[in-house]
Amino acid sequence: MARRQAGATPGNTPEELQETYEDDPNFVVSLARGLNVLLAFAGSRKHLSISDISRITGLSRGSVARLVNTLEKLGYVRSEGRSFQLLPKTLALGQAYLSSNSLATMAQETLDRIGNQVNESCSIAVLDEGYVTFVARSASRRMVSASLSVGSRIPAYCTSLGRCILAHLPADELERHLAGADLVAHTSRTVTDRAALDDVLEQVRTTGYSISDSEFEEGLTSIAVPIFGPGNKVEAALGVAAIRYPHEALVGTILPVLRGTARDLGAFLRF
């Protein structure tokens, strides 16, 4: 079994997934490996060597070399000396999801309106195996994390978007996302104790919104509300992020705008 090295995503190596689905004869390990190689380029990683990809994914360098060679022949990556980078063909994979997601396709105009109204970055995100993935976003020039865009993934446990969704999951689903999760301290203010996190999520359920203050990125404050779809099931979260924004202003000025918009988006999903 491949050993996950420093930098690999916990619980996501193909071999770990194979153990999870060992009773499923239809689970294709080679496909899981290839997808993990593509995911290694997530975030700000633009050029990666075979050694880099091996470290990130936990796959052996020999396996990575074969997978990258296949992806290169299929037109998903190209080599530049000893490193590789993604090609535009990979966009088709994400665009297929965005095109089929009714919330993502209709929300951009709404986010732009909110962004202009509050002069801050506004996003919609969905839960994705312990992370939240941005499916629509209107970015402010003042945003600290300028690299965040549609398709970016950030941890759910320490962000307002993620906590809004986690707090409204059924107990068994919440446990599935958090059991064994590596609650890393991104800053000195990140909540990393599971009992303390459970208290935070209970507060989100009570108030109906979540605030994260310098927990994911120093100086970054965010507020988010859940978006409920059919059957009153939480489908996504809508949030605004700003630099060192007073909590009173977030709750007094931005929260009413988010709540009204989330109600409208939820009604659209239930229609």
Automatic annotation (TrEMBL):
A biological process from GO: negative regulation of DNA-templated transcription
Pfam family, any one: IclR_C
Highest taxon in the source lineage: Bacteria
Keywords: DNA-binding, Plasmid, Transcription, Transcription regulation
Statement: the UniProt record of this protein carries the keyword Transcription: yes
A molecular-function term among this protein's GO annotations: DNA binding
InterPro entries noted in UniProt: GAF-like_dom_sf (IPR029016), HTH_MetabolicPath_Reg (IPR050707), Tscrpt_reg_IclR_C (IPR014757), Tscrpt_reg_IclR_N (IPR005471), WH-like_DNA-bd_sf (IPR036388), WH_DNA-bd_sf (IPR036390)
Protein name: IclR family transcriptional regulator
